[in-house]
Amino acid sequence: MPSTLKHSKHEIIPCERCGTAIECKANSYTKCQCSVVQLSINEVQYISELYDGCLCAKCLFELQQEYREEIGV
User: Fold this and answer.
1) Residue in 8, 22, 17, 71 with CA at minimum distance from that of residue 42
2) CA 35 from chain center: how many Å?
3) Series of mean pLDDT values for 10-residue runs along the chain (73 residues)
4) Between the CA of residue 61 and those of 16, 22, 31, 66, what are the distances in Å?
5) Of the residues 20, 25, 28, 53, which has the maximum number of CB atoms within 10 A of its CB?
6) Is the overall model pTM greater than 0.70, yes or no?
7) How many CB atoms lie within 10 A of CB 23?
8) Cα(first)–Cα(last) distance of the chain, in Å?
9) b (16+ CB within 10 A) / e for 26-46
10) With contact defined as beta carbons under 8 Å apart, do 15 and 32 qualify?
11) How far is CA 67 from CA 3, 4, 12, 71, in A?
12) Bridge-partner residues for 5, per DSSP?
């Protein structure tokens, strides 16, 4: 009987900020969950100063909001 489980071809890693398991699709960035958060270059710089690894879309959005509050947008 064939297995009904799909095996991911992408790496499952923890979000560096919250620990949620995310499927990293760095080799297929436009299909990655993080690509749904549209960040400005300044927002990317702000986040990259805080974190080195991958973050989930929820954390990226929260950090984007945090940055915008800091600069008064």
Assistant:
1) 71
2) 7
3) 52 94 80 87 96 94 97 89
4) 14, 15, 17, 9
5) 25
6) yes
7) 14
8) 57
9) eeeeeebbbeebebeeebeeb
10) no
11) 45, 43, 27, 6
12) none
- Amino acid (one-letter) located at 73: V
Strands 21-24 and 11-14: antiparallel
Half-sphere exposure of residue 48: CA atoms within 13 angstroms, side-chain side: 7
Beta bridge partner(s), residue 24? 11
Would you state the structure tokens that stand for residue 67, as one six-digit string?
């940055």
Residue 56 amino acid letter? C
Strands (E), 1-73: 11-14, 21-24
Amino acid identity of residue 41, one-letter, is: I
Domain ranges of the chain: 12-69
